[in-house]
Specification:
Strand content: 5-15%
Number of helices: 9
Oligomer: single chain
Order of helices and strands: HEHEHHEEEHEEHHHH
Shape: elongated
Radius of gyration: 27 Å
Structural class: alpha+beta
Largest sheet: 3 strands, mixed
């Protein structure tokens, strides 16, 4: 595991804001703003006062004018090499709020980057001490500790490794949707998954149980291709978990 930790970059850009300070910075660069004339606003139905109801025969004429204006503005933006455009202050891609009030990225709290996971801290969280003659011997937790907050970065990372290790090792081969959701913005997920595979191989003797179970379910492999020495959950007729599944993961079994 030491070599695994040394291969992890110290920081990575946030996958949500791409290393920028806000969603606006990531998605609203190079905006072309078009403000129509009073005549165009009336003809195209821009603004509540100028809108015509669908029951009015002139509605189609107004709709055609609006479509033509939209096409023209889109073409201007494209010719200028700009990715986004807005008409009368309203965006047709993304927010319609001004830059100065756009909130920072909630995933990275406006930092733009994430720090590397503390592998030792993760392993300590997913391990439970067991008394023995030589002291406390760490063992893999069968259940997730209720005292560990999964909403924090550290907690969500430890939970991700714990849950994915159970998936790869065969303790719970239902899809780990909760762990995937909680860590959806973490750029280190691939590294965390690799750590989970190592933990699974060490604890359960395999890191392929989940893959074999779902390979059969999807028709990618035949039951006869599954090795005979895997946990019961690796086989299509076996159980899907060991009974230690947290209550808030119950929807993963449906």
């Amino acid at each position: 595991m030491t070599n695994e930790a040394s291969a992890i970059p110290a920081t990575l850009p946030c996958v949500r804001c791409k290393g920028q300070t806000s969603y606006w910075d990531a998605t609203h660069k190079n905006v072309f703003s078009f403000y129509p004339t009073a005549e165009e606003r009336i003809a195209c139905g821009i603004g509540r006062a100028n809108m015509i109801g669908h029951d009015n025969p002139a509605w189609l004429t107004q709709y055609d004018a609006w479509t033509a204006l939209l096409t023209r503005v889109r073409g201007i933006a494209r010719d200028l090499g700009l990715d986004y455009y807005r008409i009368d202050g309203e965006d047709y891609y993304g927010h319609n709020r001004p830059h100065r009030t756009d909130p920072p990225c909630q995933a990275c709290k406006g930092r733009g980057t994430w720090d590397a996971p503390d592998v030792d801290a993760i392993l300590a969280t997913i391990s439970a001490g067991q008394k023995s003659k030589t002291g406390r011997k760490p063992t893999f937790r069968k259940s997730w500790p209720s005292t560990t907050d999964r909403s924090t970065v550290e907690g969500s990372r430890a939970y991700f490794v714990w849950r994915l290790a159970r998936f790869h090792g065969g303790a719970d081969v239902t899809l780990p949707m909760t762990a995937e959701t909680l860590s959806s913005a973490d750029p280190y997920r691939a590294y965390l998954d690799r750590i989970a595979e190592n933990v699974a191989a060490h604890v359960f003797g395999t890191d392929r149980a989940g893959a074999y179970r779902w390979g059969q379910a999807l028709g990618a492999i035949q039951p006869s291709q599954v090795p005979a020495n895997l946990p019961p959950t690796a086989y299509e007729s076996g159980p899907v978990h060991d009974g230690n599944k947290p209550a808030d993961e119950v929807y993963e079994t449906r």
